[in-house]
Amino acid sequence: EALAVAEQVPLAAAERLGVPEDLEALEARGLVQVVETEAGAIVQVAHPLYGEVLAGGLKHLRRRAVLRALVAAVADVPDVDRLRLATWRLDSGQPGDPAELLGLAREALGRLDHRLAGRLALAAGGTERADAGLVLAEALSGQSRIEEAQQVLEGLDASDPEHVARIAMARASDLFLQLDRSADAINVLEAAVDALDGEPAWQAECRSVLAQMFMFALRLPDAGAIADELLADPDLPGAARV
To answer: Nearest Cα to 186, choosing from 219, 233, 139?
Structure first.
């Protein structure tokens, strides 16, 4: 059951989950196989259909119990894939620490696993936290769910300057690039610049994106004026300068 649900389990963990003789018997019958990887030996079902049939027959509570036992079995096993483990925790009903989940959500974005990133961001707090909401919105955008991403961003309550800037830039990017609402995108960034009075670094980040949008909208004098002013500042953040 653990192999069917998890697909791949470190050999050390699989041996903890049951009697070693049973694992040997499954291997002898050709139902499971042990594969050597760079991270060590793993056990997996010999054919995906075997796992699908068994996993499909598991009741909800039984599945959660199997996953909780699996999470406990891999607790001190080195080199377990962090995102695979995070998925097991989510499905077990015990997702874990929100801060760790948020880091894993960002890691999932880096792997372009937007669906998992969205699940992890929700478990980390979702729209109740600006940082988790930003990741959730990016995950939705990555699934082409642009309108839903906009709703998330519009509903976030942010006071930290970084979050104010990043929310504005994320909203504006989707408005401009995905929804063809360039005027709304520009308004969002200009409002953020006003709201960030006294925060020159984050103002510069927003204004640099605004300059790009002016350029693509063929408002070249406006784009050039912002670019000249920003580039004349020796303290301009690197990202804004680029």
So the answer is: 219
